[in-house]
Amino acid sequence: MAAQRIEGKPLAAAVKQRVALEVEQLKQRGIRPCLAVILVGEDPASQVYVAGKERDCAQCGMESRLYRLPADITQAALLELLAQLAADREVHGILVQLPLPAQIDEQTVIAAIPPEKDVDGFTPVNLGRMLIGQPCFVPCTPAGCLEMIASTGVSLDGKHAVVVGRSNIVGKPAAVLLLQRNATVTVCHSRTKDLADHCRRADVLVAAVGKAGFITGDMVKPGAVVIDVGINRGADGKLCGDVDFAAASEKASFITPVPGGVGLMTRAMLMENTLRAAKLLHGIE
Ligand code: GUN
């Protein structure tokens, strides 16, 4: 039997609707949540992502401020803008769209975001807090993955979760979140031996590789929950994930589509984080 699709659209819409309601209540208290987005250079994918974030903010009744900087900007100038936004009491969330040009050190820039405005959850403070289970901003993509798994009603307790990919923004935090939900977690990466064998043992398979068709049908355990984080262009020019969707659907119990899956939830989680930042900065909750 074909797997059930975990649709991102209705899940994301429900999150955004909840956020919009709370934003309305904050506005009645004179607070308008505001997300500052910094886009350096002209990377086409980044431009699409940033436009989506602006649209989401508008839908949720939040303010968004986009700072477009030239690709040849110095690190010092970027850090100066971050210092201004850090001090600006009307800005609640700060997001620096990645990747950054080569002359800029990504980690130096991320560390310059105050943890309380770090709605991406990328700063060392928030990642460290997440690791030890303290309140923090959780990176949006892994948070979205966990929401999608939760929506299936399948418990993670004691299950074997396999994460393919070990990036700081998806693979590693996803592994930590799955562990917090009592899954037994395997993290696979480009140097993993017998990767297919690991995948075949996954009750929950999270693919965050960035290669179209990387996860083939034979790598999916019958009945597995498959979460596809990849956003790639296939040979036909169409958007696709890391998972061979048709083949994996024959094996999985639940699977996320691309497009229409994790990406939408990532954006919704950003709205939730920005709302929370606004509330925290105003001492609400
Ligand atoms: N580039 C790709 N994904 C992301 C993300 O979630 N946040 C930021 N800031 N940049 C990204």
Indicate the structural class: alpha/beta
Q: What ligands does this structure carry?
A: guanine
Low-confidence parts lasting 5 or more residues at pLDDT below 50?
A: none
How many strands in all? 11
Termini separation comes to: 46 Å
Question: Overall pLDDT, averaged?
Answer: 98
- Radius of gyration from the alpha-carbon trace, in angstroms: 19 Å
Q: Work out the helicity level.
A: 40-55%
Oligomer: single chain
Contiguous helical run count: 10
Order of secondary-structure elements: EHEHEHEHHHEHEHEEEEHEH
Task: State the shape.
Answer: globular
Strand content: 15-25%
For the largest beta-sheet, the strand count, sense and barrel status come to: 6 strands, parallel
Arrangement of strands in the largest sheet: 1-11-8-7-5-6
Polypeptide structure, described:
The chain has about 280 residues and is of the alpha/beta class. Helices cover about 40% and strands about 15% of the residues. It is built from ten helices and eleven strands. It has helices at about 10-30, 45-60, 75-85, 105-110, 125-130, 140-150, 170-180, 195-200, 245-250, 260-280; strands at about 5, 35-40, 65-70, 95, 160-165, 185-190, 205, 225-230, 230-235, 240, 255. The protein has a six-stranded parallel β-sheet with strand order 1-11-8-7-5-6. Helix 7 links the parallel strand 5 (about 160-165) and strand 6. Helix 2 crosses helix 10. It is globular. The mean pLDDT is about 100. It binds guanine (GUN).
